[in-house]
Fold these 2 entries.
Entry 1:
Amino acid sequence: MIRQGFILLIALFPFVSLFLVAPSMEIGNVEYIVHTVGLTIILSGINVWLATTFAWWLLWTESRWKSVIEWLVFLPLFIPMLATLFGLYLILAEVGLIGTYIGVILALLVVTIPYSIRLAYNGMAVIGRPLLEQARLLPMSRRVVYVLYPLFSRMMRTIALFTTVILLSQFALIQLIGAGLIPTVTTELYQSYAGNNRSLALSNTWMLILFPVVIYFLLSGWNRWMVRMLKGRLQ
Amino acid sequence: MLRSSVALSILVSFLPLAALFFLGMEALGTDWGALLTDETWRDSLFTTLYVVSVSTIVSLVLGTWVARTVVNQRWRFTSTILKIPMFVPHIAAAYLFWLLFSGSNGFWGIESNERDYVTVILTYIWKETPFVFLMMIGTYEQLNRGYVETAKTLQLSPYAQFKHAEFPFLIKPLLDSTWILIAFISFAYEVPALLGVTYPKLIGVLAYERLSTGLYLEATEPYAVALIWTCFVGFGVFVSYVMTASVRRRIERGVRR
Amino acid sequence: MKKWRVLLATLMLTFVAACGNEEAVEFSDTFEAAAESAEGSTVNLYMWGGDEGINSYIDDYVAPRLEESYDVELNRVAMDTAEFVRQLSLDKKADRQVGTIDVVWINGDNFRNAKEAGLLRDGLMERVPNATLLNETAQQSDAGTPTDDLELAWGNVQFILHYDAAKVDNPPESFEELRRWTEDNPGRFTYPEVTDFTGNAFVRHLLYERYGDELNKNATVEESFWDDLKAWSPNLWKEGQTYPKTLEQLDQLYASGEVWMTMGFNERRAEAEVKEGIFPKETRALLLDHSIASTHFLAIPFNSPNPDGALVLIQELLSPEAQLVKQGPDYWGDGTSLDLTKLDANDQKAFEELGDGVTYPNSEQLLERSIPDYGPNIIDAVREEWPSVAK
């Protein structure tokens, strides 16, 4: 009990800072919040889709390229992000995607997809091939709706959450690839960390912390509702 | 449908490698000798190695230990709470720690912005331990209790029990977490930029700043350093995975059967 | 397997097809033609965004005016100067002829770099009618680098320190006295790192104290200078183990009372901060032996997608009305770059009537002690050699 309490205390202690100064409540411009929400939804969607399909493919493929591709996809995890950033800029500038939504999404995809695939692959490995093998006997649509979705829903939530957190951590990337034209909560508010207004900086911190929390609860609610609905249909 | 999205994933994964290639092109004209003797880079490198190794090792040990305890003791609530720090963006975490330790309200004699980088390390430990925890807990949950029971029956010491009945299964997630942490911490910008000191800077901060301040605009050094560091990490990844390949394969086959 | 290849090939093709480089957008021939072609367009102004007063001057005052008089929408993008210069240089490397940035706020070594890398358009003087009103001395050179018509002066300021009179009884009057003051008040003074614009300027003031103009002819700083500067360290904030990364961080330390002095270009900058209660109430100006005068500029990048809109914006920013409001205490307090003698009587009077603030220094003394800046090679030298002080 004491050990448990101690661990909890340490995990939660830094949040004390949030209450040391009163945050300022003014929110002038909502453009950056809209951008952030938009990017979060699009990116989470793409990530969940790509990662699940890819992990599924990896689980069953007999291709002799399997291990090579597996490595190729996991390799970006080990490359420091700052190192790829400048090369990425040159590539995207060549294609004319700097300062566009697509360019930013692509760049963010590059930094999120390796994590998502890893999470998806681990998630499927935990469920194990035998269970999934039985699911393969069902026709495609039924398989996805009644077996895979309920099995994977928690994993998908984790992927969406991870994507959100990584997205919210990107300052240099969004600022450079987006050419400053796509402000997000992070870029717009990054300056306040260096600025001389502590309560503004703190309210930004609140926002950065609450964003994933909201996403988490929304997704949990959605999952629960979906599973209940599916169960209802099965009866 | 499946094929095309798999192809897209592969294509996206190709981008960082292509980016590295471009980086290499930029680094071509670097005076490598001068780079190695430059004291600023060298001091940065040593400090970075220190920060990276301490935070990685502590996070790994703590994360594994907590995962083990949580599974053994069935602490469901703790397990949920523990994941929270992972979902705090690094920038926000750094600011929380900065507020706690900055200025005259330094805590327990620990102050931010000092040369031992204690607060930077603390921030990373707080952020990465839950990450390691998440990577390990899956493994611990599906760990075959039979091995541990056998080890107990054989009356092995607790250390030997861990070594023979648990550790072999942890190799893969441990390796993955180790290198992800090393790659991430060693070249990150936000946390050390906020909590670090003017000299020596961590290598990611130094590289980013040299790229963005006037004097070094045309310099190739930061590109070269980024490239060397990536190769260094890549080499470590390669060697460690090759060395453990046979053990991991045996374990994986065992688990699947 | 086949589908696979088809898909890859299509993707490759789209990449290649998109690579066809567009032609750069040129200026219209006259300003009237430019104003006409810019109607209904958006112009992207990239500038450092760390000051609320400056931001609201652009957003709340300039943007509505621009919309009203030229039907041009102004989009202010907050980005550090070095960052957009780097972005432009990457654009140049990738041969991106139609970029995103229309106007930049720039000066000093960043301008020198942009100029050397060929990132800016020339011929601004003849294209912007209000450029004739500019103060010719200010317009001529940017911290020692000839402007060569690549940028137009936007504001003119001087370096000054500020202190909290509630805590500092006998403020120092020279840099030497300042050093001794730090000995008596350890931990109460610091300056930003020299990668920061202001921190670098502070060190240049000390250089001027020792070398005067001489450094312009012979740009070598002796080791002993750095040793002397290192001698300040034990009495600085955190014993000189670390320095604030930026001026804003120093301001933050000053606002919270941890240090008792701050500094910066723009002799009027503290007024709004005191009014808003961020800086201590008793903040006063501190003018030492000499003060570097600095001009900051506006420029148009080589790959501006809307160069006509850029001209219209600069014309507006250099108008006497906009400059008057900029110098006033409401938003920013930035000194005008216009030559007052070239203005008509009414405008001149309006500038004279702006008056003084409590945190302003004595304007005659300020002018007397004004010195021109060293060239960019000294800025570079400070950057290169100062780290030995921080060690």
Note: The mean pLDDT of chain A is 84.
Entry 2:
Amino acid sequence: MSRVEIRAPMPGVFYRKPSPDSPPFKVDGDDVAAGDVVGLIEVMKSFHEVSALEGGKSVRFLLEDADAVMAGQVIAEIEV
Amino acid sequence: MAIKVLNPGLLTSVQDLGRPGYFHLGIPVSGAMDRYAMRAANLLVGNEESAAGLEAVFVGPQLAFAEDAMIAVTGADMPVKIDGEIQPGWTALPVKAGQVLSFDFLTAGARIYIAVAGGIDVPVALGSRSTYPIGALGGFKGRAIARDDELPVGRPSGRAISGRGVPDDLRRENPVPVELRILPGLYDHRVTKASLDRFFDEEWKVAPEADRMGYRFRGGTPLEFNEREQPFGAGSDPSNIVDSCYPYGSVQVPGGTEPIILHRDAVSGGGYFMIGTVISADMDLIGQLQPNTPARFRRVTMEQALEARHARAAMLDRLRKALQ
């Protein structure tokens, strides 16, 4: 079993929830399907969804909610 | 000849070297945030430096070419792909009819510039093809490009040399932390000497709100203002002044907390004091800053600012000679 990285397509602030009062898009251990939204990135006063390019099992996040993120940085890993 | 937009990226707009001459009427200079990179891209494809190209921030677009074309991509480090195959940046690249230009993730810098031989041939508005989206002025229909747009391309000059690149020493690097040189004034006297010294000593970070209007920074200590009775017409906050013109590159610090460097799409006036102005030689660097990038502000004199301007002009001359 190998791990696949989900990377940030752009820099900004990473959020794991669609809004402050909502549950997170995914929690550690969840399965992820290709196209699933795993977080939001806020940059230039707007929010952009981050989707998984491929699916996998047992996601593990490497960033906390509201962490700063650079373009290309690994946000999470999944098992494939 | 047209280019079809399959995916616009995050925010991609038609830009040239800008629309100077109307700032006093509230219409910003617009144009490429990194004009050196825009000029280099145009020279590579045999265009006039002032031709219009595309500026894409953080995420590259996906573009399909209806006819053969010569293109070049400069600016940020973002792998260029033609039909999925990686191609070099800062190089004149031939594209065949039907091929698709796309990009991988950004690795350094913030904005790429895509030039096409013949230039993006949108109508000229007030002397420029640059897009000013807030004013719905210029560019492609006054807005950022969108999926399924067909971008018109002008007639190529035929001067481009396929495969020719910009020499390495003329490809500007994107150093981190970045150092931006600032000429203090006209309102730096509003801040205590200790506070002003600290402003230039501390490390700041680019805020995620930074955009074409202004680059905001945070992380430094709030400024301390010299006490005064606010003059008639100025607001009550100590960072307020009687309304004034804002130069391109000026650094305002609303509330004394987060400096904002005004850039190509900035407002032209208002009531915030300005601690100084970023020198012209360093304005292009700002266009390549990602959010969270550490930055320092270095105080310079007018003589140093002019020397830096001459050095920058000399580098541009070397670029022109290299791509003649």
Note: Helices of chain B lie at 35-44, 193-201, 283-286, 302-322.
